[in-house]
Design goal:
Arc Repressor Mutant, subunit A; 23 helices; 51% helix
């Protein structure tokens, strides 16, 4: 396998953002390439001292055709002249620790107490919980345990409410302290019955507290309004991953049009300076050989980008044809699909389809989906094979409509789906329910 072929295969499985990064790297490595800002004729082609003969010495269109590249605007996309939004210059959002340290600086504390508070803040995780034991921290700092507890008590008064807790129980109790609409049973349930709440054992709690089960339900509903992870929405944005669609599927007059995203990748062209050098150099010179090699590399990159665009278009077009019912009616009509079916329709190998759909997303009228989403497994149904995603959609719909005071068991769910023409076992229902993060019937029940 030649390096050029390896590059073409590698380009095929890159997303739009990854392709943009690779193009930027190639611009640094290959001097023949440069960005095309749309002013080729006005600026770059009119070099000082360059004669008309030198500018026209090379027929670039003919050269591209000779090496197998079809000249077309599909090689890349023109950059826009719009300015960069100001918020792009923001380096990062303050982390949870930085927020807490800023609040320490606003407190009137002795320097020794501030150092202890800063040490404790350094041991708070991204969810807002203190990791470690105060006894160990006191030994490390050579401080008294009561001094560490005093410093922690100050931190636990900071924003967000509940930060600095050592466990879930303490976190919830800290939030109760700041709330004015606390349910009378909330504190006692948090202190004694959190494990029972997780298992939905409300009858036991009501019996031991000698109250009505409806009061326990109301108290638990209030507890669930508290935040078990007060620090999770604060912090820097280094882990944020933005998804840029690689293809757009638009509905136009009842039909679907596929557009490959070429806006995120800059448009490439050949540097005019090296054009003139190539025209002047003889075939045997080192300079001419170097420029020829770099030019061939640049043209292969352009050809690989164009081939990627065509393959991605054809694969997406075949997916849209196969999943037309999904685009028209929704997820319940998603059909089972395998790579082999698309490969046979497009006329490529299955591995090519796998690479073309890897790390790619499609913006559709139904939302943003990974291309791999459309390749779904299936189960038997009265009208043939039904995709797993379609079964999950039916399952969500049935559970959403159930009686919350008498939720359906997995066996009852399987029987209801069978009436809809979908034959699945109880174990399959339990598997799909867990994948959807839907609890069992005993834990869904309300009192």
């Amino acid at each position: 396998m030649t390096p050029e072929l390896q590059q073409a295969i590698g380009l095929l499985q890159l997303s739009s953002l990854e392709l943009c990064d690779l193009i930027q790297k190639e611009l640094l490595d290959n001097p023949v390439l440069e960005l095309d800002d749309g002013e080729e004729g006005e600026k770059k082609g009119d070099e000082p001292g360059e004669t008309e003969h030198e500018k026209d010495a090379i027929d670039w269109e003919q050269y591209l055709q000779e090496v197998g590249v079809e000249p077309s605007p599909g090689f890349s996309q023109r950059q826009t002249d719009e300015g960069v939004p100001f918020d792009h210059y923001l380096s990062k959002e303050p982390s949870l620790q930085e927020r807490l340290l800023r609040q320490v600086g606003l407190c009137r504390m002795a320097e020794v107490d501030k150092r202890m508070a800063e040490f404790l803040i350094g041991n708070i995780d991204q969810n807002g919980y203190l990791q470690g034991e105060l006894e160990e921290f006191a030994l490390l700092l050579g401080a008294e345990l009561r001094e560490m507890e005093s410093a922690l008590a100050v931190i636990q008064q900071f924003d967000p409410v509940g930060v600095g807790a050592r466990n879930l129980r303490e976190c919830l109790l800290l939030q109760l302290r700041e709330r004015g609409d606390v349910h009378p049973l909330a504190q006692k349930i948090i202190e004694l019955y959190l494990a029972d709440v997780a298992e939905n054992r409300f009858k036991k709690i009501a019996r031991e507290l000698q109250v009505e089960i409806g009061q326990v339900q109301a108290a638990v509903d209030f507890i669930r309004t508290l935040d078990p992870k007060p620090g999770r929405f604060l912090g820097d944005n280094r882990d944020v991953r933005y998804i840029v669609p690689d293809v757009f599927v638009e509905e136009v007059d009842g039909d679907y049009v596929i557009l490959v995203n070429e806006f995120s990748a800059p448009r490439l062209t050949i540097n005019p300076y090296y054009r003139s050098l190539l025209a002047k150099e003889t075939g045997g010179s080192l300079t001419g050989s170097f420029i020829k090699g770099r030019l061939d590399s640049a043209l292969w990159l352009l050809r690989s980008i164009e081939q990627r665009r065509r393959t991605l278009y054809k694969v997406t077009e075949a997916i849209v044809r196969r999943q037309r019912c999904f685009f028209d009616e929704g997820i319940r009509f998603l059909k089972p699909l395998v790579l082999r079916q698309i490969a046979e329709e497009v006329g490529v190998h299955e591995s090519t389809v796998s690479r073309a759909t890897a790390n790619k997303h499609a913006q559709t009228p139904r939302g943003l989906y990974p291309l791999k989403f459309f390749f779904a497994s299936g189960v038997e149904g009265s009208q043939g094979i039904v995709s797993a995603e379609s079964v999950k959609s039916h399952l969500r719909e049935v559970i959403a409509a159930e009686n919350i005071y008498s939720p359906l068991s997995d066996q009852q769910l399987a029987e209801l789906l069978m009436r809809r023409g979908i034959t699945v076992s109880r174990r399959t229902i339990a598997k799909y329910r867990e994948e959807l993060n839907i609890p069992s019937s005993s834990r869904r029940k309300r009192h």
